[in-house]
Amino acid sequence: MNKIDRYVATSVLWSFLVVMFVLLGLDTAIAFIDQIKKVSDDYTVQSILQVLLYRLPGKFAEYVPISSLIGTLMGLGTLASTSELTVMRAAGMPIWRIGLSACQPIIFVALFGMGLSEFVAPVAEQKANLVEKLQDQKEGNFALTGGVWLKADNNFVYINAADRSGKLYGIKIFSPDGQHLKSITDAKSAIHINDTQWLLADVKKTVFYPDHIKVQTLPSEKWSVSIKPEHLYLASQEPDFLSLSQLRTYQLYLETQKQDGAQYALEFWSKALRPVACIALVLVALSSVFGPLRSSTMGGRIFSGVMIGLAFQNGLNLFGRMSVATGFPPAVGVSIPIVICLLSGILLMRRRG
Predict the structure, then answer these.
(1) For the segment 139-164, what is each residue's pLDDT rounded down to a tens digit?
(2) Residue 270 near residue 320 (C-beta atoms within 8 A)
(3) Which of 48, 125, 129, 169 is the most exposed place for a label (fewest CB within 10 A)?
(4) Angstrom distance (rounded) from CA 114 to CA 153
(5) pLDDT in tens, 235-244
(6) Could you give the residue ranges of the DSSP H alpha helices within the chain?
(7) pLDDT of amino acid 119
(8) What distance in Å separates the CA atoms of residue 274 and residue 270, rounded to the nearest whole number?
(9) What is the DSSP annotation of 268-298?
């Protein structure tokens, strides 16, 4: 049985890799076409390719579930079309054993994808964001888009980008006085000095008086704020670009500040349950190969896999966002489509024998 197990696992793994290569290729091509219109003297084609390369690890982890589904359909479908699955069943190999063989490489790539999303993708994505956003500053096209807003000590702060060392780029600090705006501080960058002190560089400060406006340009200025550097860095990143540990850390911080951390909790559970989602989709693929797709063509299997994958992803997004909107635990919202796929796959597998 070991040779048969390896044969089934190898077939599924190669199909998975082919599907992943195609998905990453299509995603990269579409992203390149979208980015090419931004080419300038500062943001070259080489910069675009660098950004796309940095984002590959995160895309790989994101496409693992759908690649697992279509890869299993293709790998086992090929064996079914050559009657090899029929021979295995005739030799006394139960369906659950074939399913276990198919799940082994998927579990491996799912764990590998989690490793990428935890240790590699956040660092690479942060570098990609810095390449993109710092080009905007070089061109003088800095605008209040693409970064993050947060409230700190009654001030409203915008951060365009941040790196893992805690250095901030493109900071705007809006200081209100009741219902009126007291001042706006615009700085190119900021570095952390001690617990509550930051040093702003290349500062332009606009102060609003009742009868006039005063503009100051300073090489540097101290900024006192109670937020820690790691929290500022996490706040400046999109939730889907953060690792599991970073998502959990910032979610707990927001909860201690009595702010809404549901979006970070949703992304945490979406990433944490990816391996389970992969297994659920593999079970659905197995039940389909031994059922309605047994005599289907390869194109039919791929089309079915894409449709099932889209339905699963839409269900994941729907229930996840509904849980955030209604105040329901995000873990439950993410789990609903996964549990539906698991139960459907198990029940259909039992019916197939």
Answers:
(1) 444 333 457 888 777 888 898 877 76
(2) yes
(3) 48
(4) 36
(5) 877 888 899 9
(6) 2-35, 45-54, 56-81, 84-90, 95-115, 121-139, 229-235, 244-256, 262-272, 274-289, 298-326, 330-352
(7) 93
(8) 6
(9) HHHHHTHHHHHHHHHHHHHHHHTTTTTT--H
